[in-house]
Amino acid sequence: TSLAKYAYTMGEGEIYVNLYVQNRAELELGGARVSMECATDYPASGEIALRPGAGEYALCLRIPAWAREFTLTLNGERLDIAPERGYVRIVRAFSAGDEIRLSLPMPARRVYASARVREDIGKVAIMRGPVVYCLEQPDNGELLQALCLPRDAVLNETARPDKLGSIVEISAHGKHIACSDELYSDCAPTMEDAELTFIPYYTWANRGENEMSVYVREI
Questions:
Q1: Which of 36, 40, 62, 195 would give a disulfide with 48, using CB separation of 3.0 to 4.6 Å?
Q2: Could you give the CA distance from residue 135 to residue 102 in angstroms, rounded to a whole number?
Q3: What is the pLDDT of residue 67?
Q4: How far is CA 179 from the centre of its chain?
Q5: How buried is 128 (Cβ within 10 angstroms: 0-12 exposed, 13-18 middle, 19+ buried)?
Q6: C-alpha distances in angstroms, 182 versus 138, 175, 178, 179, 198?
Q7: Which carries the bigger pLDDT value, residue 179 or residue 205?
Q8: 136 near 127, Cβ under 8 Å?
Q9: pTM above 0.90, yes or no
């Protein structure tokens, strides 16, 4: 219920856009009311359209720390503005009908924990934009701890509107350590080919009780 309080922050002659969510707002700036509209399906994609109300002020757009690059346009014309303390500042007299478009590419990427996190040494997690992904048993079978992701494996993205309320699924060719019937053996375990399927972490536990893992062994 307090989401609206975090989406925008007002400064002296400044409007900070902190959260990219679909919304229309009426903001108070220096005793005047300024309208603001944001059209986006973020974080499903990084495409954001902002339609600021008329007035002269600084519009400051947050550039997330995970974003390695971004493009910014005003009425179709590219703006080259470097972020300062996590925000790009657009200072001008805005007119009705102006549209700012912010594009935040969000390819799937690997994320590693510090070696101080003993359970995650030698493992890797997958993120896409701000969204953490995980492995779940319905997609990958039992013994998720036996799955391995090669460091050079390509991370493939597939839109799945029919799955878990519409998600972007990530898959990769990996390996599965064969499970021996013996608890201990003198023989090194063998590896078999496996297809790894990652789903957004927020969607897990919607298909019954099963195994889930965020970090996967890297080889």
A1: 40
A2: 31
A3: 94
A4: 34
A5: buried
A6: 26, 20, 12, 9, 30
A7: 205
A8: no
A9: no
